[in-house]
Each structure stands twice: as structure tokens, then as C-alpha cells.
Specification:
The complex is a heterodimer of chains A (135) and B (142).
Chain A: E1 19-22, H1 25-35, H2 40-43, E2 70-79, E3 88-103, E4 106-118, E5 124-134
Antiparallel strand pairs in A: 1-3, 2-5, 3-4, 4-5
Chain B: H1 4-7, E1 21-22, H2 28-38, H3 48-53, H4 63-78, E2 83-90, E3 101-112, E4 115-125, E5 131-140
Antiparallel strand pairs in B: 1-3, 2-5, 3-4, 4-5
The chains are: A mainly beta (135), B alpha+beta (142).
């Protein structure tokens, strides 16, 4: 059964506020422990594991959907350097694209979000692209 | 900084098969810990009842957990300072009790002004040899 699409293309370009996240040693260690990541620098809490930016959660005004209907289709991260304990990263997430496509589960909405993180000197640290699929 | 695995393999070039990293079986406790550590509180990952209401047999792992395994794989191969890109698709669901193994191969070795880089094909496969999460990565060699 097709659901009416809840997201429309007028969301493209909408952005979150810039949010400053402090990379805490304890948060790195907790994340590393959950993943059972054995990387020594991560176990010590000095360096964040590559997917740590997923902990930086932000909201975009006007963008809401039912969590139970969302599939995480794909994810990309690019890094200038790893995040380290004590980093203060300014992040912003943006709706890069919204489109509908017919799939095996019927009409699906694809939502592409991009995220960027810069350090206190304004240098880029990482960027991310999320593909979420709403059925 | 080069991790021990690649540091001992100066011969790596396109087609080279990378060593495996086998992870312990996924447990429900791990999913609860990952939910807390990552901030992804979608209950389909931690509550069987919620998972059943959306047509699943029970909880499924966060896709990002399998991506985190691949992140660890890159750190193990090349060292955490050398990871430049990781891009994956989430292809199959992962359930508690599944055991994932990270595998990879070298697609290309490139040398530019920034030094040598390896373009890798990486994936996490389950105990049935299904590629649950797969994609590409780039690590710096020098």
C-alpha cells in the first residue's frame, strides 16, 4: 500500500542551526566500547572512531518523519583528520535533495542530508552524506 | 601514521586482498550500548515489541554499527590518522547473534602531491557470507 509522501522538494536547501559539539573523552570511550573497537587510541579516548560524527545530532526546521518508516540506505564520511578529545566542532546539516522513486516496496521517498564539521580555526574536519529512505 | 597491517604490506596494489577482521557476535546488550553511545534511540534496535509492530521478527542492529565495524577495520589496517573516506550502503539487516567479518581489497593505489593513497573496496559480511554493508574507502599511506 502506498503512503502519501510526507516530504516534498521545497525542503531542499533547508539547514539546521550551526551547533558546536565538544568531543569528550568519555563519549569517545563509551562509543568505542559499544562498538568493541580495539583501536588503541580510541580505547584510550584520545581519538574518535571514524563514524563518531553520527553522535552529532541536529534538527532541521520543518523536517519531521515517522522513525518507524525510515531506512538508512547509505552513509558516507570524508575526513581531513580524525576528531580528537577536546575538539570543538561546529556542525551544520542541510537537506541536499528529496526525490520519490518506485521501488520493490512501492513509492519511496529518498532524503539526502549533508553535514559539515569545522574546527575552531574554521578548517574543515569532516563531511558526511546520509541517504535515508522513507517508505 | 600507518597501522601495523598495512605497514607490513608495502607490496599492496590493485587487486590485493586485505586481511580479515572478525568481530564478536552482536548482542542485544551491544545494541542498547550503541543506542546510548550514538544517540540513535529508534526502538526497533532495542525493543522487540516495537520491532514487531513494523513487521520485523525482532530487533535489528543499527546500520551504523556495521559501518562502525568498517571504520575500525580501516583504523586497524591504516591507523586512525590515515582514514580519509568511508562510504557504504546498508544492504541487509543484521540481527543479534549475527557475526560480522570485515573484509576488503585494494581497488587502486594512487600517488599525488599529498602522498600515496589506497582506494579500497570494503564490506562486512555475516556468517552466511552475505555482504550486509559494503562500500568504498580511502586511506593515506604516507
Amino acid at each position: 500500500m502506498d503512503h502519501p509522501p510526507t516530504l516534498t522538494r521545497d525542503l531542499i536547501g533547508r539547514e539546521s542551526e550551526v551547533v558546536v559539539f565538544e568531543v569528550e573523552r568519555g563519549a569517545i570511550r563509551k562509543f568505542t566500547d559499544a562498538v568493541q573497537d580495539q583501536t588503541p587510541a580510541c580505547v584510550r579516548g584520545d581519538v574518535a572512531p571514524p563514524t563518531f560524527p553520527t553522535t552529532f545530532r541536529m534538527t532541521i526546521p520543518g523536517l519531521t518523519f515517522d522513525l518507524a518508516r525510515v531506512l538508512h540506505g547509505a552513509q558516507e564520511y570524508r575526513y581531513e583528520r580524525p576528531l580528537r578529545a577536546g575538539d570543538r566542532v561546529s556542525c551544520r546539516v542541510r537537506v541536499a535533495d528529496v526525490y520519490q522513486r518506485k521501488g520493490r516496496l512501492g513509492e519511496m521517498t529518498f532524503l539526502i542530508l549533508t553535514m559539515e564539521g569545522t574546527d575552531e580555526s574554521g578548517s574543515p574536519v569532516f563531511s558526511g552524506t546520509t541517504t535515508a529512505i522513507l517508505r | 601514521m600507518i597501522g601495523p597491517e598495512l605497514a607490513e604490506r608495502p607490496d599492496l596494489d590493485s587487486g590485493s586482498v586485505l586481511p580479515d577482521l572478525r568481530k564478536p557476535p552482536i548482542t542485544k546488550l551491544q545494541l542498547v550500548k550503541y543506542a546510548g553511545a550514538s544517540g540513535d534511540y529508534n526502538l526497533i534496535h532495542t525493543d522487540d515489541e516495537t520491532a514487531r509492530t513494523v513487521g520485523l521478527e525482532g530487533v535489528i542492529a543499527h546500520g551504523m554499527l556495521s559501518m562502525a565495524f568498517l571504520g575500525e577495520y580501516l583504523c586497524w589496517l591504516a591507523g586512525p590518522e590515515s582514514v580519509r573516506r568511508l562510504s557504504v550502503r546498508f544492504n541487509e539487516m543484521v540481527r543479534p547473534g549475527d557475526t560480522l567479518t570485515c573484509r576488503g581489497r585494494v581497488k587502486e593505489r594512487t600517488t599525488g602531491s599529498a602522498g600515496s593513497r589506497l582506494q579500497l573496496e570494503v564490506w562486512a559480511e555475516n556468517q552466511r557470507a552475505e555482504r550486509v554493508t559494503f562500500g568504498e574507502a580511502e586511506v593515506e599511506l604516507a
